[in-house]
Design a protein that fits this description.
Helices cover about 60% and strands about 0% of the residues. The chain is mainly alpha-helical.
């Protein structure tokens, strides 16, 4: 699951409007026009498509990790308000490559003020049964001895559960 897919699914699950997407990116430190946001929210082509690479860039903007991190940080600010940064805390931490899904879950937990039980319920709504310990391992800091990388299927089920919870 690429970053564009994550944004598309998150936008659908939480019913975020285009103007709110622009505002969230702005709060995260990146400025996009409405047209650029629409291009970011365009589905990626499958590797089996016979179309040129040039056409992909014309109709779609690839969402990199920095853009996703900016969106998630902006989403926290959008939902919870501006917070004064601590002196030892970086302003815009980079989203790690292999644990983008872990960071997605952590930041959504903060933005939506979810408890562990809420997250377990959302995952259950998404069709996956997870223990509290397994969820805790996914939410741990990278490098911790009990840290577990969150797979694409797990993140997909979480976003599906969010859609069930927030769209019904």
């Amino acid at each position: 699951m690429d970053n564009n897919d994550i944004l598309i699914r998150l936008r659908y699950a939480l019913d975020i409007k285009n103007k709110d997407m622009i505002e969230i990116f702005k709060l995260g430190g990146m400025v996009f026009t409405k047209e650029e946001v629409i291009k970011i929210l365009t589905k990626s082509k499958d590797e089996f498509d016979n179309l040129d690479e040039a056409e992909e860039t014309e109709y779609q903007i690839k969402c990199n990790n920095k853009m996703l991190a900016a969106f998630l940080n902006g989403f926290i600010t959008f939902k919870r308000g501006k917070q004064d940064s601590k002196p030892d805390q970086p302003n815009n931490p980079e989203l790690p490559e292999k644990s983008a899904n872990n960071m997605l879950l952590k930041k959504l937990k903060v933005a939506l003020q979810l408890t562990a039980e809420d997250m377990l319920d959302i995952l259950d709504d998404g069709g996956i049964a997870v223990s509290k310990g397994e969820l805790g391992a996914i939410l741990r800091k990278e490098g911790h001895r009990n840290y577990k990388v969150c797979g694409d299927n797990f993140a997909r089920k979480f976003l599906k559960g969010l859609a069930v919870r927030y769209r019904t």
